[in-house]
């Protein structure tokens, strides 16, 4: 999994077109979204993650919690982003993993939004620009076979 973490004044998106034949079903309300004072987590789920999705979810949640506490925000935007890797995992498993990350963060008391999966989206972001405002993480399941 590749994650780009951006601490922002806000992140807002608007769904434009389908990017998959069968994107996630969404309500009218989910076609737009915005969070203020947010840690945006742009996530590419990779093929290797399919070897142990549970572990990847756990490690991703830990990394997000760690940065969120450093930048002092409880607002998290989980954003599916298929542009951080050339070895993307399957959409079905990717969506499952992203939903799990969202759920686990909510259980831990974070205010979480997740951008819809399988769409092209317009988005606006206002990076805060402090030293911890732009971070990236690579997460690999522990048992992953090194090819
Ligand atoms: N910017 C727009 C966009 O990325 N759209 C992506 C994601 O929403 C989602 N998607 C598909 N596969 C993946 C994956 N492995 N990891 C994350 N998202 C995925 O499906 C769209 C087309 O790839």
Could you explain the architecture of this structure?
24% of the residues lie in helices and 37% in strands. The chain has 2 helices and 6 strands. Strands 1, 2, 3, 4, 5 and 6 form a 6-stranded mixed β-sheet that branches. Helix 2 links the parallel strand 3 and strand 4. Helix 1 packs across helix 2. The model has no long low-confidence stretch (mean pLDDT 96). It binds 3'-deoxy-3'-(glycylamino)adenosine. The site of 3'-deoxy-3'-(glycylamino)adenosine has 18 residues, from strand 2, helix 2 and strand 5.
The beta-strand count equals: 6
Described by strand count, sense and barrel closure, the largest sheet is: 6 strands, mixed
Could you state the oligomeric state of the chains shown? single chain
**SSE string:** EEHEHEEE
Radius of gyration: 14 Å
How far the N terminus sits from the C terminus, by CA atoms, comes to 16 Å
Query: How large is the share of residues in beta strands?
Result: 35-45%
Which bin fits the share of residues in helices?
A: 10-25%
Question: Which structural class matches the secondary elements?
Answer: alpha/beta
Mean pLDDT level: 96
Question: How would you sum up the global shape?
Answer: globular
Q: How large is the count of helical segments?
A: 2
Bound molecules: 3'-deoxy-3'-(glycylamino)adenosine
Low-confidence stretches: none
Short description:
This protein has two helices and six strands. The protein is α/β, with parallel strands linked by helices.
Descriptive tags:
binds 3'-deoxy-3'-(glycylamino)adenosine, globular, alpha/beta, six-stranded mixed sheet, 147 residues
């Amino acid at each position: 999994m590749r994650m780009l973490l951006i601490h922002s004044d806000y992140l807002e998106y608007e769904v434009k077109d389908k990017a998959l034949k069968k994107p996630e079903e969404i309500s009218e309300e989910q076609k737009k979204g915005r969070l203020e004072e947010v840690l945006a987590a742009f996530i590419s789920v990779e093929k290797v993650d399919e070897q142990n999705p549970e572990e990847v979810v756990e490690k991703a949640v830990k990394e997000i919690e760690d940065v969120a506490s450093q930048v002092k925000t409880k607002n998290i935007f989980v954003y599916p982003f298929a542009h951080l890797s050339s070895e993307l995992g399957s959409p079905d498993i990717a969506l499952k993993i992203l939903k799990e990350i969202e759920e686990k963060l909510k259980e831990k008391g974070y205010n979480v939004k997740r951008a819809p999966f399988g769409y092209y989206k317009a988005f606006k972001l206002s990076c805060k620009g402090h030293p911890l405002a732009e971070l990236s993480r690579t997460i690999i399941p522990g048992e992953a076979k090194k090819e």
